[in-house]
Amino acid sequence: MALEVAVKAAVGAPNVLGDCPFCQRVLLTLEEKKVPYSTHLINFDEKPQWFLDVNPEGKVPVIKFDDKWISDSDVIVGILEEKYPQPSLVTPPESASVGSKIFGAFVKFLKSKDPNDGSEQALLAELKDLDEHLKNHGPFVAGEKVTAVDLSLAPKLYHLVITLEHFKNWTIPQDLAHVHNYTKLLFSLESFEKTKAAKEYVIAGWAPKVNA
User: Fold this and answer.
1) What number is the average pLDDT over the span 58-79?
2) Is pLDDT above 80 for 96?
3) Burial of 198 (C-beta count, 10 Å sphere; 0-12/13-18/19+)
4) Is residue 112 over pLDDT 80?
5) At what angle do helices 119-137 and 102-111 cross, to 10 degrees?
6) What is the four-CA torsion angle of 4, 78, 144, 141, rounded to 10 degrees?
7) Catalytic residue from among 17, 20, 107, 161
8) Exposure string (b/e) for 35-57, b if CB count within 10 Å is 16 or more?
9) Is 20 assigned a catalytic role?
10) pLDDT band at 211, cuts 50/70/90?
11) Mean pLDDT to the nearest integer, 180-205
12) Are the beta carbons of 111 and 104 closer than 8 angstroms?
C-alpha cells in the first residue's frame, strides 16, 4: 500500500510540487528505496482543514505511518530506514554531519544586506570544507554510493545554486571542483529529477524571505 506524504505546493501554483528542501529530502528517500507513495500538495496560502486537524502546527513534510501522521524530516527518514532497510541509506557516523552547516550559512548570506558582515566568507568556508571532504572521500559524502546525508544536502545545494545566482549573481567558485562535481552528480540522479521543484518555484518561494 502506498504511503501518504504531505508536502508543500508551489507558490502561486497549488497543483505543482513546491520548493521545500525538507520535503524533497523525504521524497528522495522514498524514491531511492523504491517505496510506493502518494503526495498531498499543501497550499500554504490556504492550508486544508484535514491537514491542520492531523498536524496542528501546519508544517511539512508529514507522512502517515500506521494511521498516524509523523512530522520532521529527520524523524521520517529514520523511520523509513527502519521500516524499509533495503537498500540501506545509512551514512557512517564519521560522515553524518558533513555539510550540516551549509544551509544555515547559505540562508544568512542570501538574506544579508551588508557585504561586510562575513556571511559570504562563512558560506565559502563551509563549501571549502565540503570540497576537501569530497576530495578525500568522494564522489559522494560516504564514498561510492548515495547515503542519507547526500539526500539531505542535495535539495539544500539546489536551493543555494538557484537562489544565490538569481538574487545575488553569485555562484560557487570554480576552484571548488569537487563540490561542482558533487552537485552535478546529485542533480542528475533519477530520484532528484523526479522530486525537484522547478527553478521558478524555488525563486518564488524564497523571494518574500530575501526581500523582507
Assistant:
1) 97
2) yes
3) middle
4) yes
5) 150
6) 110
7) 20
8) eeeebebbbeeeeeeebeeebee
9) yes
10) confident
11) 98
12) no
What is the amino acid identity at position 140? F
- Count of Cβ atoms closer than 10 Å to residue 22 Cβ: 21
Rounded average pLDDT over 6-32: 97
Q: What is the DSSP string of 96-156?
A: TTTTTTHHHHHHHHHH---TTSSHHHHHHHHHHHHHHHHHHH-SBTTBSS--HHHHHHHHH
Q: Are 51 and 39 in contact (CB under 8 A)?
A: no
Q: What is the pLDDT of residue 124?
A: 98
pLDDT at residue 93, rounded to an integer = 97
Q: 184: buried, middle or exposed (CB in 10 Å: 19+, 13-18, 0-12)? A: exposed
Grid cell for residue 169 = 549573481
Amino acid at 96: A
- The three three-digit cell numbers of residue 150, written as one number: 547526500
Q: What is the pLDDT of residue 1?
A: 81
- How many other CB atoms are found less than 10 A from the CB of residue 124? 15
